[in-house]
Amino acid sequence: MQGKFITIEGIEGVGKSTNIAFIQSWLQSQGIECLLTREPGGTDLGEQLRNILLHGGDVSDKAELLMMFASRAQHLQEKIKPALDRGVWVLCDRFTDSTYAYQGGGRQLNFDWISQLEQLVHGDMQPDLTVLLDAPVEVGRARASARSEADRIEAEDMAFFNRVRDMFLARAEQYKRYSVVDATQPLEHVQKDIELSLKHLLNTAGPV
Ligand code: Z5A
């Protein structure tokens, strides 16, 4: 049986890394084998592209968009699809929803280009569950900046990140696979909410 594909999304600092580790240990406690990965990155080529995307100098908006999808194409072929085909559940820190939010919402690139690249790279394949951790930009930025220095994308202004957040929320309204979690709550409440979505997915997944 195919594994399930779970993605976690949101602006910086909302707790994606913290909670993807929680999802992994919760699923493992249910006897489910998981692969934890991230975008951009997840493969040798993807990690090289990530380094350019986050720490390179002058990267044009279109080059940024194409590198996000180049990383994704490699990731799907080399890692995500083979794992799902083996019945392993894949947990991915960001996926194409981030491209709509950052390159579409933040950079204001044409949605048709994103949608055409999405079709080229993964056709109709979509996550089974997308957990959107939502918090005001100030909250996420304060948490992230307490931890590390801003990278090339994190150096954008508040208006950029507000457009990113709005785009995530608009997509969450549009697609049933989304579960929106209030990330301003204490961590244990955030994780209770995530657990409910996981239980729901598990109930609809049948025997594993
Ligand atoms: N990007 C893009 O533009 N287009 C694309 O298609 C894709 C990505 C795929 C890399 O993302 C960048 O790539 C990203 C979007 C772009 N740039 N930005 N901005 P990334 O995911 O690697 O990096 P990030 O978004 O900046 O995430 P992050 O800073 O690593 O944050 P996080 O993973 O969401 O949060 P965290 O590390 O789990 O938690 C941050 C801190 O908050 C930490 O100290 C926690 O202990 C604390 N925390 C977490 N939850 C709570 C709660 N509930 N209460 C209190 N404190 C908490």
CATH class: Alpha Beta
- How many strand elements? 5
H/E order of the elements?
Answer: EHEHHEHHEHHEH
What separation lies between the terminal Cα atoms?
A: 8 Å
Task: State the helical fraction.
Answer: 55-70%
CATH architecture identity: 3-Layer(aba) Sandwich
Shape: globular
In CATH, the homologous superfamily goes by the name: P-loop containing nucleotide triphosphate hydrolases
Radius of gyration: 16 Å
Unreliable runs, pLDDT <50, ≥5 residues? none
Molecules bound to protein? ligand Z5A
Lateral arrangement of strands in the main beta sheet = 2-3-1-4-5
What fraction of residues sit in β-strands? 5-15%
State mean pLDDT (0 to 100 scale). Answer: 96
* Main β-sheet description: 5 strands, parallel
Explained architecture:
- There is one protein chain.
- With 208 residues, this protein is α/β, with parallel strands linked by helices.
- It has one domain: P-loop containing nucleotide triphosphate hydrolases (Rossmann fold, 3-Layer(aba) Sandwich), CATH 3.40.50.
- 57% of the residues lie in helices and 12% in strands.
- It has helices at residues 16-29, 44-55, 61-85, 96-106, 111-122, 137-145, 158-174, 187-205; strands at 5-9, 34-38, 89-93, 129-134, 178-182.
- It has a five-stranded parallel sheet with strand order 2-3-1-4-5, with helices on both faces.
- Helix 2 (44-55) packs antiparallel against helix 3 and helix 4 (96-106) packs across helix 7 (158-174).
- 38% of the residues are buried.
- The mean pLDDT is 96.
Can you give keywords for this protein?
208 residues, alpha/beta, Rossmann fold, five-stranded parallel β-sheet, 8 helices, 12% strand, binds ligand Z5A
